[in-house]
Amino acid sequence: MSAAFEELDYRHTPIGAISLRRRHEPRLGVEVYEIKLDDAFLMSSLFTASEIALAELALDYHGGTGLDVVVGGLGLGYTAVAALDHRALRELLVVEFLAPVIAWHRHGLLPLGARLAGDPRCRLVCGDFFALASAADGFDPATPGRRFDAILVDIDHAPGDLLDARSAAFYGPDGLARLARHLAPGGVFGLWSNEPPDAVFTARLGSVFADARAAPVTFDNPYQDRPVTQTVYLARHSAG
Questions:
Q1: Residue 234 · residue 61 · CB < 8 Å
Q2: φ/ψ (deg, to 5) at 32
Q3: In sequence order, what are the residues at sequence separation of 6 or more whose Cβ sits closer than 8 angstroms to the Cβ of residue 52?
Q4: Of 107, 173, 197, 229, whose CB is crowded by the most CB atoms within 10 A?
Q5: pLDDT at 229 over 90
Q6: Would you list the domain boundaries of the chain?
């Protein structure tokens, strides 16, 4: 067992101070990894059901095989690993804005790092997902204009609860339409949210994409002794 609490790294970034912490949770008998941005918790290894569901639900929703996938937001790596584990995946590109997060995975500070850094199907790219989503060249620096079968995003807390105000335009109709240009025909957009389903946002997706739905993901919170519901939004690009 490691120490009761360790701060594994602390860095200043363009959007605030980011830290990686590891602690022992005596109530559950597990090691917990947490990422914080300033005083806000971004991610905990205790709560990963919806991050895993983002990849599983989106790739199942697509229904095809040999899929090329983008994940926006690396975090602790659970969405990316779930995509790698999916039978339909061919290649994965993970776009992460914060260089320290990529370094944590590559240098073995996180449990899933070796898996992600060592899988030849996976590339970790340091970049601004939201800027790339609005640019004509798209996400792959090696292949400008490349289109993907699925684009999955887990960056902000929710469409109305942002880490940085500069991403607000992405969640509007024009921003979503620019994102859709990077999807292959019939491609899928998947979005994680820390909040229950929002009918207004689901309708907005439906105004841009051929089909849209909100999938609630409910799990038990051992600290609150109650179930918590988060959301995976799914939308399909037109086939033609």
A1: yes
A2: -115, 130
A3: 78, 79, 82
A4: 197
A5: yes
A6: 47-236
Tell me if 5 sits within 8 A of 33, measured CB to CB.
no
Does pLDDT of 1 surpass 80?
no
Residue pointed to by tokens 């399909």: 236
d(CA 240, CA 185) in angstroms, rounded, equals 6
b/e per residue, 123-155, with b = 16+ CB within 10 A? ebbeebbbebbbeeebbbeeeeebbbbbbbbbb
- Give the DSSP H or E segment for 56: helix 49-62
Residue 43: both structure tokens together: 């991610």
Q: Please state whether the predicted TM-score (pTM) of the whole model is above 0.90.
A: yes
Task: Quote the Cα angle for 25-29-35, to 5°.
Answer: 35
Q: Which helix (H) or strand (E) holds 55?
A: helix 49-62
What are the pLDDT digits (tens) for 9-56? 999 999 999 999 999 988 878 899 999 999 888 899 999 999 999 999
The rounded distance, in Å, linking the Cα atoms of 227 and 99 is 34
CATH superfamily of 47-236: Vaccinia Virus protein VP39 (3.40.50.150)
Report the alpha-carbon angle 155-159-162, nearest 5: 55
What percent of the chain clears pLDDT 70, i.e. is strictly above it?
Answer: 98
Average pLDDT of every residue of the chain: 95
Question: Over the range 10-21, which residues count as b (16 or more CB within 10 Å of their CB) and which as e?
Answer: eeeeeeeebbbb
Tell the residue number behind the tokens 């993901």, with chain if given: 217
